[in-house]
Design brief:
Blueprint (H helix, E strand, L loop, with lengths): L2 E3 L11 E5 L4 H6 L10 H9 L8 H10 L2 E5 L1 E5 L9 E5 L2 H6 L6 E5 L1 H11 L6 E5 L11 H8 L9
Parallel strand pairs: 2-3, 2-6, 6-7
Antiparallel strand pairs: 1-4, 4-5
């Protein structure tokens, strides 16, 4: 089994919405990019929320556009043993200190969890905090195919209330 590590956060002091995944998959790790697997709907889903075609942009510009709209990205797991890319294969996870991390984001008003694994670990670490919305989202992963993409789009639309125009 291979030990896999997550990426640094993509946030700044203006981040209002933080989207947390679990741990990057193999395609993301190979390319050094969040949500790099072509079957992952993340960039389409968040692009719909923002009203922008983020998929058409180079990766660095995607991150720049998210920061411009006060959206940050990170993962709840720092590192873990995992064969392949499925969350169900994660073993011996080392979790991030999300409580300390979000305390350093003065504009943060919402944390969204991309999938069940992120929500499970993230909610435990963050707990209830006055003024901070915690939002569970259906996973953008193509491995979560039981929910049609249109239903995912509707669920992700709630994020629009937390992004700047």
């Amino acid at each position: 089994m291979q030990r896999k590590s997550a990426f640094p956060p993509s946030v700044d002091e203006h981040t209002r919405l933080l989207i947390l995944g679990s741990l990057p998959g193999d395609a993301s790790i190979r390319q050094g990019e969040y949500y790099a697997h072509r079957g992952n709907a993340f960039w389409s889903l968040i692009g719909d929320v923002l009203g922008e075609d983020l998929r058409a942009l180079p990766y660095a510009l995607r991150l720049k556009r998210l920061r411009a709209r006060h959206v940050g990205l990170w993962d709840v797991i720092e590192s873990a043993d995992r064969e392949g890319s499925l969350d169900s294969a994660i073993r011996d996870a080392e979790l991030r200190d999300l409580g300390a991390f979000i305390a350093r984001l003065p504009s943060l008003e919402a944390v969204a969890f991309n999938g069940r694994t992120a929500a499970l670990h993230g909610r435990r670490q963050i707990g209830a905090r006055p003024g901070l919305a915690l939002i569970d989202l259906p996973s953008s992963s193509s491995a979560y195919a039981s929910l049609p993409r249109e239903a995912k789009r509707r669920a992700w639309a709630v994020l629009a209330a937390h992004v700047s125009g």
